[in-house]
Amino acid sequence: MSNLQTMGQQHGRRSWAEPWKIKMVEPIKMTSADDRKRALSEAGYNTFLLRSDDVYIDLLTDSGTSAMSDRQWAGIMLGDEAYAGSRNFYHLEAAVQTHYGYRFVVPTHQGRGAENLISQVAIKRGQYVPGNMYFTTTRLHQELAGGIFADVIIDAAHDSQDLHPFKGDVDLDKLRALIDKVGADGIAYISLAATVNMAGGQPVSMANARALRELCNRHGIRVYLDATRLVENAYFIQEREPGYADKTVSEIVKEFCGYTDGAWMSAKKDNLVNIGGWLALNHEDVFEAARNLVVVYEGLHTYGGMAGRDMEALAIGIEESMSDDHIRARIGQVRYLGELLEQWSIPIVRPIGGHAIFLDARRFYPHLTQTDFPAQTLAAELYLDSGVRSMERGIVSAGRDPATGDHRFPKLELTRLTIPRRVYTQAHMDVVAESVKAVYDHRDSTRGLRMVYEPQYLRFFQARFEPA
Ligand code: F0G
Q: What rounded mean pLDDT belongs to the chain?
């Protein structure tokens, strides 16, 4: 039961609080409405192009924005900056093996470095890569390696109001149909993401992962996992799936990984570091190929683009990320913000997901069409109102179909309020919620945007807009 509900129903109020206290603070700048108007116009109405000095509360992403612990900072001082064989690499390798259970580890500078390696190693030109919804960088690397992404997530994931508890699940019928159509040889591997980012941070059930494994075993197809937010996924399994309430998040993570052949990781999320990533594998031949490629793109196979100190902080971060108390508070804070918005009937993706609140821009601005870029517009309006920075997850993020060159029109047109880990307080969440409410209150008079500059790859990062 949620915090707000419990408060109303119990005689004595019993709140949770963060399992940490603050040892160091970073002042943030307060901005005026005039400052923000100027800054947004200079940034082409794209929150990725704002300077962070012009931002008050930064909910652009949970990627690399977490606060490290005192133990992690102490680990920074233990960096062994040897080019080869750094002792910190062996700590990192052991942490991944212990907590995720894979045999082999290749370090990378961040998640997309690992995506590049696995895509190049495991995809033959023309093969399909079925996945539970696309992610921007993941799909691009699959396409650059000659693969064709196929969305096999359950339909509920594309509906912002469907209350399915595991909206990240793979639709096994869709996958079977694809296997029947192109044959097992026509499939490179399954690209399985835990807590599906683009669906609103929605989890995959253990039952689904197990059934997927069985189906793939029958056809000799491998399953690779995007483990970026797997700890959050494990928390939802513990909370919602029968038989898991008494298991630790760490045990659930390990069982889940056991249904897959390897994983890539953006350690900038779950793993609580500002930079880093890894690829972990169970098959030695795939590992050898990836370890060979890493020296081309990232650095030697015992640092992969990270400094020794980064690997030490990451090894410690992995361990901290598996704590039940940590993850309960992390998801609890996201839920706190979401429940405030729900109380005011502001349209958000439901159930509330793991790393962010996703505002449903279609229902926020029903008078705008998708080519008015409603989610981009909402991110701009929110910034103008209060200096809160969010980001677009809709038509701009979806990009263009490489075959036709047309916009892709995703069903979900969302603005993401992404919560960094261990950074902001409940008071910050109150300020954010009140700003969303203010923007919602004048929604009827809001007009859309038009795109005036569009880069070739991952356009949402650098595109520019003007008021329509
Ligand atoms: N996979 C997922 C699910 C991600 O969310 C990201 C990054 C990546 C892979 C790529 O990792 O950034 O370390 O190269 N997501 C960030 C975000 C950018 O804001 O959602 P990376």
A: 96
